[in-house]
Every structure is written in C-alpha cells, then in structure tokens.
C-alpha cells in the first residue's frame, strides 16, 4: 500500500512534469526557428538558428502605456551588447481587451539619425498591434519627460553606431560592422516579441523607414517567420545609385564587392517569401527610383507598389501612409486588402492597366519628360478613364522619360503600376 509520503512525492513529480512540459511547449512556440531560404547567398554572415532564439530581456519600465526594455544583442568588440526598445500593446494603452487575447505584432525599424520612437510604437498599439521599436545605433533616448528622443545617449554595452561603421569598417570582421548588428537586432526583436504571451507568433510583420527600409529589405529575405513586410524609401543597389555613391567611390573595387556581397539588399530580396509592399517617392534623394524599381523586380512572389509624387523623406512622413496599415491588416487581421494592380498593356497610343479589389476608384497617369537625375525631375499628371477592372490612358508624350499609373480607392489608399523608364535614367 502506498504511503502518504510516497503519494505526495508522486503527485509532486506529476505536477513538476506538467510544469516542465508547459515551459518546454512555450519555449518551442517562442523559439520557432527560421528556415533559411535556398535563395540566400552563401556569404550570409548571420547565424539564423541562433537569432531565432528568444533573447534575454530586462524591463526598464514595465507599467507605463509605452514600456521600455533592454534585450540582448550580438557581441561587439568581444563584449556582449544590449539593445534599447519601446514596447506597447492595446492593453498597455488601457484598451479593454478580452482575457487571454493575443495581438498581431509589428517590428519597427528606424532610419538614419533616428532612434526608438515611442510615438511610433504607440501608433501601432492604437491600431490593435503589439509593437516593438528599437534603437539600432547602440544608444537609447534620454530619460525625463521633457527629453527629446532624437538626443540619444550611448549605452555602455551598446552595439556600433551608424556613422563610419556603415561603410568605413568594410575590411573588419563582419561582426564588427553596423549592417550585421542592425539586421541581427531586428531579427532578435522579432524572436523576443514572438515569445510574449499576449502576442500571436503566427501574425507578425515588419516595416522600416529609410535605412530601416533598407534593413527591412534584408530582414524580409532572411526571417521568413514574418507574414508581411513594408520597406519605406529604403532599397538595394546602393552602389549603383543612391545618396552614398561618394562612400563607394572611396573604396577599392575589392572593398566595394565585399560590401555589396554582404550588405546590399539586392542579395536578399530574391529570397523574400512573404507579401511585401514597397513605398517611395518619385524624387527621393537617398533611394532613387531606378534603384528602387530594380529592387522591387527582384522579389519573386506577392508584391505591391505605392509610388507617391514628391513624397517627403522623414520618419513621420515614412510612417504616415495609410497604405502601410491597410497592407499589414490585410494579412494579419483579415482587413480589407489594397487594390491589386495587375499587368499593363501598352500600345503606341494607349495604356491599359488592370486592377482587382476596389470598385469606386480614381486614377492618374504620372510622367516626366526630364532627362536629368531621376530624383530631380519634374513630374506631370495626365487623366485616365476608369472602367470595370481596368483603367485606360492615352500614352504619355513621346519624349516622356518615365511614367506610371496610380489607382486610389474610396479609403484614399493608393497602389501603382511599375515605373516604366523609356530612357536609362
């Protein structure tokens, strides 16, 4: 006959087994591994299995509407690093949610001169998402209610900055370069937010602005756990046309080849498997339209395009487009999709563009006849005739050097055709 002590021990072991099984199950969910695409280059320097693991986290503020934390990054200079981030959900903002409700999540990547933005995380939390916005320059915003987020302060254990570390460290080990750390920090942020119990790990997206768009274009090819991606401004082919041609001009051919092979998004966009929306302006000074369209063309799967005439370049302008939320909602929250623009049929006298999704749309033909630098051209607008499932426009003038057609739905969200270049920009 079993003694009381033996019975208690048996029940305790059973309880511990349940606890261990629960912890192991949660860890397995949180640590869903990235499955590297066969289309990735052999030179890929990141350990994607390791980056799939949940990093350590230390909460700085675990009670505010927008919370702050530090999470583990990649070693830099032989020492461990930590990354500062803001985190918010509808629940942290005080929105009534149901018990055990799990939110879709979004990872937010800032651009050059930027940092983790409290406002950006809050914006997405108001949309119904769990959002994480991290600093990718080894710093953090200063403390204090009156502090300016842009006046960042270095972390004692932060990673590389975004100065000379971007281009001038090309001869150093890959782990000592900014792009390596920024990409790794973004993927680690994804692994972290997937581990939170209030997050649905199967509904995550990524968006980035400027250099953050550049990073999004790389991360989307590496981390196929995301279900949607939106790079704003940023793209690949930086060595062919971008604001950083002077930086490449200072490199030897071997250095250029190494930087491009390791860090240019053109090597990673062919591996993108999730739906992706590209947003840029016609005259962007940093990421010109020719490089942008070449980057867009590399994605083999589901992709959409939104080109805005004279779109300003800034963080607020980069997170403002309604198309970003619409696109991500459509894949993570069963929201209304953007109008899907199809093939363009071109004759000498007429353009016909097919579309699917919206019934009440407006449309415009945009073209330029200038022949100077692509991001310094003046764009003109011509009429189109909207018909069921397609629009028709007269062909642009014979001297047009570039053109595209936009379609705007009743919610004022726009998608566009590919930009056609009649002459090499």
Question: Any overview of this molecule?
Answer:
Helix 1 crosses helix 4 (about 180-195) and helix 4 (about 180-195) packs across helix 5 (about 210-220). The chain has a nine-stranded mixed β-sheet, with helices on both faces. Strands 14, 15, 18, 19 and 20 form a five-stranded antiparallel β-sheet that branches. It has a four-stranded antiparallel β-sheet with strand order 12-13-17-16, with no helix packed on it. Helices cover about 25% and strands about 25% of the residues. It has two domains: about 30-340, Rossmann fold, CATH 3.40.50.1820; about 340-420, Immunoglobulin-like. Strand 18 (about 400-410) and strand 19 form a beta hairpin. The protein contains ten helices and 20 strands. It has about 425 residues and is of the alpha+beta class.
Query: For the largest beta sheet, what order do the strands appear in spatially?
Result: 1-2-3-5-4-8-9-10-11
Unreliable segments of 5+ consecutive residues:
4-30
Content of β-strand = 25-35%
State mean pLDDT (0 to 100 scale).
Answer: 91
CATH superfamily of the largest domain: Alpha/Beta hydrolase fold, catalytic domain
């Amino acid at each position: 006959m079993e003694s009381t002590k033996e019975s208690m021990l048996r029940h305790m072991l059973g309880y511990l087994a349940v606890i261990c099984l629960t912890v192991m199950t949660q860890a397995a969910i949180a640590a869903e591994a990235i499955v590297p695409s066969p289309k990735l280059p052999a030179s890929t320097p990141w350990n994607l299995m390791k980056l799939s693991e949940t990093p350590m986290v230390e909460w700085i503020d675990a009670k505010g509407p927008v919370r702050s934390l530090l999470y583990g990054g990649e070693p830099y200079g032989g020492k461990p690093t930590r990354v500062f981030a803001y985190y918010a959900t509808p629940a942290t903002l005080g929105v009534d949610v149901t018990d055990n409700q799990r939110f879709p999540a979004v990872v937010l990547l800032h651009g050059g001169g930027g940092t983790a933005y409290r406002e950006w995380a809050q914006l997405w939390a108001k949309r119904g998402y769990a959002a994480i916005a991290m600093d990718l320059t080894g710093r953090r915003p200063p403390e204090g209610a009156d502090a300016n987020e842009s006046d960042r302060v270095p972390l004692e254990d932060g990673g590389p900055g975004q100065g000379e570390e971007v281009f001038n460290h090309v001869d150093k080990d890959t782990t000592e370069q900014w792009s390596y750390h920024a990409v790794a920090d973004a993927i680690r942020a994804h692994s972290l937010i997937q581990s939170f119990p209030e997050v649905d790990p199967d509904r995550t997206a990524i968006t980035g602005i400027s250099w953050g768009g550049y990073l999004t274009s790389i991360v989307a090819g590496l981390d196929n756990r995301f279900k949607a991606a939106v790079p704003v401004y940023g793209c690949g082919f930086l060595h062919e046309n971008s604001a950083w041609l002077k930086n490449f001009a200072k490199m030897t051919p071997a250095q250029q080849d190494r930087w491009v092979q390791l860090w240019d998004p053109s090597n990673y966009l062919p591996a993108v498997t999730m739906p992706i929306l590209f947003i840029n302006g016609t005259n962007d000074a940093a990421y010109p339209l020719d490089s942008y369209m070449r980057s867009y063309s590399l994605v083999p799967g589901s992709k959409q395009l939104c080109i805005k005439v004279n779109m300003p370049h800034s963080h607020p302008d980069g997170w403002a487009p309604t198309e970003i939320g619409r696109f991500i909602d459509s894949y993570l929250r069963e929201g209304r999709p953007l109008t899907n623009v199809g093939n363009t049929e071109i004759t000498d006298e007429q353009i016909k563009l097919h579309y699917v999704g919206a019934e009440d749309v407006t449309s415009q033909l945009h073209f330029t006849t200038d022949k100077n630098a692509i991001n310094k051209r003046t764009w003109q607008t011509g009429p189109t005739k909207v018909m069921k499932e397609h629009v028709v426009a007269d062909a642009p003038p014979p001297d047009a050097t570039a053109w595209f057609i936009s379609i705007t739905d009743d919610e004022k969200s726009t998608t566009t055709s590919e930009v056609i270049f009649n002459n090499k920009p």
